[in-house]
Specification:
This protein is of the alpha+beta class. It is 41% helix and 20% strand. It contains six helices and eight strands. The protein has an eight-stranded mixed sheet, with helices on one face.
């Protein structure tokens, strides 16, 4: 069963040895926990976890503008266009685009590549080779001729507000939320070397834990297949598989 905010906080207070420390009232500890959740989520996203992937349709109406004198679409990154998006590098996975005839996938590029593709006629973006970059809290998208955009991105884990709120970080990785929060507390207390060491350990350990998680999920699927071989789908569903 997933841990609650209160359970996470109690364990962090013990592990960080800050019980009764006025520097860490409940509200501050809760904020540290929520930031730790986002950090661990980002690590898991980078390892390939699909749990928080989401899709949203972007508005292209009245979005045309210019960049280095070339037409592009400028789409604001806000809660309307991207509900609950995780604020981290590469939080937009890719953007599906169409002009009504052709279809393609656009991937994020850096400033130099985006500029080169706009200015170099040999590299000029088409629907089938579209590109985008993030700048000034906007998505700059090329070509500007597309009429529909659908973005695939990572949603942020919900913040824990009440003591009874359950974390949505998988149980297998809750300990790293605790460890990350403890590392942050070390940094606040001035123990920067301890924070750096613990952060590095978390990155190494979570990678190993994720591989074990994948192996465990694969074994579960194998057992399910063995147990339900030859069973009709409707009966399999009623059995809980």
């Amino acid at each position: 069963m997933s841990a609650t905010l209160a359970e996470l906080r109690d364990q962090i207070v013990i592990d960080a040895n800050v019980h009764g420390n006025p520097q860490f009232p409940v509200a501050r500890l809760n904020r540290i926990i929520n930031l730790a959740q986002r950090s661990i989520q980002t690590e898991l996203n980078g390892l390939g976890m699909k749990k928080w992937e989401a899709v949203t349709t972007l508005s292209t109406q009245s979005r045309e503008e210019e960049f280095v004198g070339k037409p592009i679409l400028g789409i604001p990154i806000d809660g309307v266009q991207f509900p609950q998006m995780l604020e981290s590098p590469r939080s937009i996975i890719f953007i599906e685009c169409s002009d009504g005839t052709s279809h393609g996938l656009a991937y994020e590029v850096d400033l130099d590549m985006f500029k080169d593709q706009l200015e170099n006629t040999w590299l000029a973006p088409s629907v089938s080779s579209a590109v985008f970059m993030r700048l000034a809290n906007k998505i700059l998208f090329a070509p500007a001729t597309v009429t529909s955009l659908k973005a695939y991105y990572y949603k942020a884990v919900p913040d824990l507000v009440n003591d009874g709120d359950f974390t949505t970080i998988p149980v297998e990785f809750e300990e790293y939320v605790i460890k990350k929060a403890v590392a942050e507390i070390d940094g606040i207390l001035g123990n920067l070397e301890a924070k750096q060491l613990k952060t590095k350990q978390i990155q190494n350990e979570i990678s190993s834990a994720y591989q074990k998680f994948l192996e465990k999920q694969g074994e579960k699927r194998r057992i399910t297949q063995e147990n339900t071989r030859g069973v009709p789908d409707n009966i399999r569903y009623n059995m809980g598989y």
